[in-house]
Design a protein that fits this description.
Structural class: alpha/beta
Keywords: Aminotransferase, Pyridoxal phosphate, Transferase
Organism: Reyranella humidisoli
GO molecular function, one term: transaminase activity
Strand content: 5-15%
Number of helices: 12
Distance between the termini: 23 Å
Family: Belongs to the DegT/DnrJ/EryC1 family.
Pfam families: DegT_DnrJ_EryC1
Order of helices and strands: HHHEHEHEHEHEEEHHEEHEHEH
Length: 369
């Protein structure tokens, strides 16, 4: 059996993507972003319902530009969950803003809004709400919107894992904040190898984003600069892949939900294993995330059966890159017990069953291991 976690990390490219690239190269066009990039952006905007979509070279830079576009500057504080990929705080630290870490809800792994309220200071400029694995916060997105409005701070959505997931009010995840961000790195539902996208309904924010990613140019193709900007542009080759990937999103979303449901059924009743909940009417699980007991033993046992896994994000404050004091019981528990199981959209039902039988055998087999 193939290590299916490694398969999850591979771009899901097929013959359609290969043909799109070959067709483009045969046209002898420019490699830098142009018409296909605009088409890819429009497909994302149409799918999410956003007025504007701006694609950039990766999902970390998309968060950096999101913060800059809404007015975050050096020394401003940005509230960030302590459970997230480290790109979230790094994105604002890159230009001198200060990430302030807050613990998360135990079921959704989204920011705990009561702890967010306590963390707000006069220096707080923004809240970066990460929708972990497509899940919205249990208190509802409207509660975060109201808090941001009340405090006069910006709401930025890190929706890197959430393409294909929706809020109960019908908006796509990423639409609630003033700006939302997606990632197109290898394990995502849409992958262009690297890449990121920003969505917003705010015309001025969209204008700033387009200038920030293109040297601060006052218009496309000129060398007149009325603001500071950088070079975070996309490429037409990535767009060729992205266009084909977007066409597959509806089917992939369906399959992701089927995979999670099968795991839920096959792992039911096992002491020591609990899946994080999902409302499949709204969310498309990016990975199969679980809390497990005796995690290291389970990892080794599954590896012997050629089943790959990966530990979930450890708390950022405990990593050497930040090494900050504080009490974060939920994110610290995930650092001890959180595990991602094989999640690739290519998984067959039989392969999922193989994984689940191995997990059940570890916990319920001879001598209970």
């Amino acid at each position: 059996m193939v290590d299916h976690f490694i398969m999850q990390m591979r771009p899901l490219f097929g013959e359609e993507e290969k043909k799109a690239i070959c067709d483009y190269m045969d046209e002898d066009g420019f490699i830098t972003e142009f018409k296909r990039t605009a088409q890819f952006e429009q497909m994302i905007a149409d799918y999410t319902g956003a007025k504007h979509c701006i694609v950039v070279n990766n999902g970390t830079i998309s968060l950096t530009l999101a913060a800059m576009a809404v007015g975050v500057v050096a020394d401003d504080e940005v509230i960030v969950p302590n459970y997230t990929m480290i790109a979230s705080p790094n994105a604002v630290k890159m230009f001198g803003a200060v990430p302030v870490f807050v613990d998360v809800e135990p079921d959704t792994l989204c920011l705990d809004i009561e702890l967010v309220k306590k963390a707000i200071t006069p220096k707080t400029k923004a809240i970066m709400l990460v929708s972990a694995n497509g899940r919205p916060p249990s208190v509802g997105i409207a509660a975060f919107e109201a808090l941001a409005k009340e405090k006069g701070i910006e709401l930025i959505e890190d929706s890197a894992q959430s393409l294909g997931s929706w809020f109960p009010d019908g908006r796509h995840v990423g639409r609630a904040g003033r700006v939302g961000s997606f990632s197109f790195s290898s394990p995502k539902i849409v992958s262009t190898g690297q890449g990121g996208a920003l969505i917003t309904d705010d015309d001025e924010v969209a204008r700033r984003l387009r200038r920030l990613k293109d040297f601060g140019r006052s218009g496309g193709g000129n060398d007149i600069h009325d603001s500071i900007g950088f070079n975070f542009k996309f490429t037409e080759l990535q767009a060729c892949i992205g266009i084909e990937q977007m066409r597959k999103v509806p089917a992939r979303v369906i399959r992701k939900k089927e995979i999670w449901k099968r795991y839920q059924e096959k792992l039911a009743g096992i002491d020591g294993v609990s899946l994080f909940p999902h409302d499949l009417a709204l969310t498309a699980p990016w990975f199969i995330d679980v809390r497990v007991e005796r995690r290291e033993g389970l990892i080794d046992y599954l590896k012997q059966r050629n089943v790959g896994t990966r530990v979930m994000y450890p708390p950022i404050t405990r990593q050497a890159a930040y090494d900050l004091p504080g009490d974060y019981p939920v994110s610290e528990d995930i650092g001890r017990r959180g595990l991602w199981l094989p999640s690739a959209v290519q998984l067959s039902d039989e392969e999922i069953d193989h994984v689940c039988v191995a997990i059940r055998d570890f916990y319920e087999g001879p001598k209970n291991r």
